[in-house]
Amino acid sequence: MIKIYINYKFTDNPWGGANNFIRNLISYLKEDSEIEIINNIEEKFDIIFLNQLSEGPLNGSKDSSLRKLKNQKKSGKKIILRAINLKLHSYNHNIYHAYLDFRLINFMNNYVDFVIFQSEYQRNFFLGAGFRNINNTVIHNGTNPNIFKFISRKQVTGKVKLISSAASSRESKNLKLLADISKIKSIEIYHAGAWDKSLDSNNIILLGTKTHSEMNELFSKMDGFIHLAYKDPCPNSIFEAISAGLPVIYYPNQTSSSEIVGLNGIPLNLNNYEETFDAFKNNYKELCDNLIKTRGYYSINRAANDYKKVFELFR
After folding, report:
1. In the CATH hierarchy, which fold is given to the domain comprising 2-142+299-314?
2. pTM, full prediction
């Protein structure tokens, strides 16, 4: 029996990709007879599993105390950390952000027993920031196929109906580009989640924040998912869309999307937007056929089993 304390306290409400993944991971691991999830840090456990340093929305989204984590390490606990992001990667450069990143990398190099990255793209920018712990691997995320239910699709008739989603409206979500693209007459774009109110949404139909069941219902009415964010370590929204049977149009540069999507979508042609959607429509059946073959990869079952293999290293 492996006893694991997970310091991230999730919410069932919409709260972004990390929250969704941790909730699904815990739910899956609780069904495993060889793993016991410990809810109280005062109880006995073997491994403390960190979602980087965040303690989650039900703990006020605060960061864990490095001093307390180091004390756990001294007491013999093993620390496994799931990497999320670096301040200098996702926000503006300043001295304080550089300090926070330096402190995090130092902790990962010297106190963490094993690091799980969400993508090769993510591991590379951590390596560029000084990460040197050889005990690491890449495990792509996964989603719950019982929530995001697969629908087989064959062809697009009429306009291409696309949906996007975002938990925040920061610059790297590329909402301005999404709004510009919405002017193309051969497509319809729907957007769920956060929107920058200073931006003209043009022809985008804004849907507001939606629950997971509402997103699944929306997915069932769409032809594809459009994800134009960059600097994205491993977008859970792509896993959810593919799980529901939607091929993806994604931003091609400085992000993990191409690594995650593979043959289940196409990159946005930055030199000719309209050509992208023509190609999407012309290759639609092939994209959807590939989704049928690969959809299992995007499930929490595959991801959780990969995480379990890491936990078993410290049995």
Report:
1. Rossmann fold (3.40.50)
2. 0.95
